[in-house]
Amino acid sequence: MRIGEIAALVGVTTRAIRHYHHVGLLPEPERRPNGYRAYSVRDAVLLARVRRLTELGLSLDEVRDVLADDAGRDLADVLEELDADLARQEAEIGERRRRLAVLLAAEPRDTEPLSPALAALLAKTPHPASPAAAKDREHLTLLDAAGSGGQELYAALGPLAADPALLALYERLDALAEAPTDDPRIPALAAELVAAVPDEVFAAISAEGQVVAGFQEALLAEYAPAQAEVVRRVMEAFMRRSRG
Question: What is the C-alpha to C-alpha distance for residues 59 and 200, in angstroms, rounded to an integer?
Answer without folding.
Answer: 49
